[in-house]
Amino acid sequence: MAVETTKWGVLYCPKKTLAGSRRHREKIQRALNASGIDYDFVQSENMNSVERLATMLINNGYKTIIVVGGDGALNDVLNCLMNADKEVRDGIALGVIPNGLVNDFARFWRFKESDITQSVEWLAKRRVRKVDVGCIHYTTADGIDRRRFFLNCVNIGLSADIMNLRRQARKLLGSRTLSFISSLMLMLFHRLDYKMHIKINSDEINRRVMTMCIGSGRGYGQTPNAVPYNGMLDVSVVYHPKIAQLVAGIWLLITGRFLNHRSVHPYRTRKVEMLEAKHAMVGVDGRLLKKPVGRYTITVDQEAIQFLISD
After folding, report:
1. Is residue 270 very low, low, confident or very high in pLDDT (cuts 50, 70, 90)?
2. When comparing pLDDT for 259 and 106, which is higher?
3. Residues 44-76: b if buried by 16+ CB within 10 A, e if exposed
4. Can you say whether the dihedral through the CA atoms of 280, 281, 285, 289 is positive or negative?
5. What single string gives the DSSP state of each residue in the chain?
6. CB 185 within 8 Å of CB 213
7. For residue range 44-94, what is the model confidence (pLDDT) as tens digits?
8. How many angstroms from the chain centroid is the CA of residue 194?
9. Which end of the chain has fewer surrounding CB within 10 Å, N or C?
């Protein structure tokens, strides 16, 4: 059933306990009501239900879809939107109220998880900007060709491995801080580099690489100069540093000076070809892919979707 074109579809993706989730949801609804916004509110039960609910909102004709969630939830909704017909996609504006483990893309536009009222006020002004969408084209172990779209980045190697360990640790420990510390400690017993054969522009890299980030956005600090509206991908390739250099690299990442590290090699391109990356995990906006089989490519589609931005 079609809805009024002015009505928002708000998809809430909880991350907290049931009681905490309820209080947070009510706070968002109060902010929406105070701004006089007409909306329908749906809540995901788990990560697997986000795409189903997003598809429902798209098919029911909502022209404004707001994701209350982190980079992973935003990525799930983005992929539903990109799989819709272009005519449908061009009529929809996507927005975000940050509520995730990582909110990197929201942070780029100055949306803060701690200030719901400000986020809703910005969204209500309906400042729309067309933004780029990256895409990884890969083949599964079953021989099926797949595409996964992203707003922020693709991580290959150690960074994706840390994401996987952090997610597993958080399930066991609950605490965000403890899970981060424990995942870093576990990395001491993990593979720290991977044999990769990469083609970027006219350069070919055929050597052991620790981690690689391909960002249309900031890439969790690994592609700090990337912007999601220039039709380009920023790439950081990190060769295997010594332990002392590794510690220095983590510090530079935290302080926003990642590209200053001697083991980091930056590029800017429209296409990355991964000719070989055996055993290297791949993360897309924080969501892990099953290891792609054989070659895969990462490209960018300029100004592919409409996104609601801050002032």
Report:
1. very high
2. 106
3. beeeeebbebbbebbeebbbbbbbbbbbbbbbb
4. positive
5. ----TT-EEEEE---S-HHHHHHHHHHHHHHHHHTT--EEEEE-SSGGGHHHHHHHHHHTT-SEEEEEE-HHHHHHHHHHHHTS-HHHHHT-EEEEEE-SS--HHHHHTT--TT-HHHHHHHHHTTEEEEEEEEEEEEE-TTS-EEEEEESSEEEEEHHHHHHHHHHHHHHHH--HHHHHHHHHHHGGGS---EEEEEEETTEEEEEEEEEEEEESS-GGGTSTT--TTSS-EEEEEEE---HHHHHHHHHHHHTT-GGGSTTEEEEEESEEEEEEETT--EEETTEEEPPPPS-EEEEEEEEEEEEEE--
6. no
7. 987 778 999 999 999 999 999 999 999 999 999 999 999 999 999 999 999
8. 23
9. N
Query: Which residue type is seen at 174?
Result: G
Token pair 């840390």 in the structure block, residue: 162
Backbone angles phi and psi of 263, in degrees to 5: -90, -5
